[in-house]
């Protein structure tokens, strides 16, 4: 595994990315909140809208910087993180699994990716629909079909 650019790694088989619409809306809302705070000329309004913008804008920028979030390149899994891209060879993948979690009365599906990094430590990454841009159960099926170790879906 090594850091690097995904585009230089060779032919892609599959790629999953979050959409650009929601992060773009977050950035616009963040700047709109700052503008509202400045126009109100109230220190408390500026503080509150500034704090909200301080959360919204960096979150959106990090979502845009980590595209594509997950990609299969030359038989390896490329995982994009803020610190760079990590390439995980197929044999280093311990488990790819779909999890179903009930939160606030609604069922949410997650993809669990467990692998061994270049230092020999096991790493666990959990992806949601917002991370992948599609249903995590479908991603697990595709990765399992490509030869990455998978387990049955938890419903």
Summarize the structure.
The protein is an alpha+beta fold and 155 residues long. The chain is 37% helix and 32% strand.
Question: What descriptors fit this protein?
Answer:
about 160 residues; alpha+beta; 4-stranded antiparallel sheet; 3-stranded antiparallel sheet; 4 helices; 7 strands; about 35% helix; elongated; disordered N terminus
Plain-language structure description:
- The protein has 155 residues and is of the alpha+beta class.
- It is built from 4 helices and 7 strands; from the N terminus they run E-H-H-E-E-E-E-E-E-H-H.
- It has helices spanning 21-40, 43-65, 129-132, 136-145, and strands spanning 12-16, 70-73, 76-81, 84-89, 93-103, 106-116, 122-127.
- The strands form 2 sheets. Strands 1-2-3-4 form a 4-stranded antiparallel sheet, covered by helices on one side. Strands 5-6-7 form a 3-stranded antiparallel sheet.
- The two termini are 32 Å apart.
- 37% of the residues lie in helices and 32% in strands.
- The relative contact order is 0.17.
- The longest helix is centred in the middle third of the chain and has 23 residues, at 43-65.
- Among the domains are: 21-65; 90-145, no CATH class.
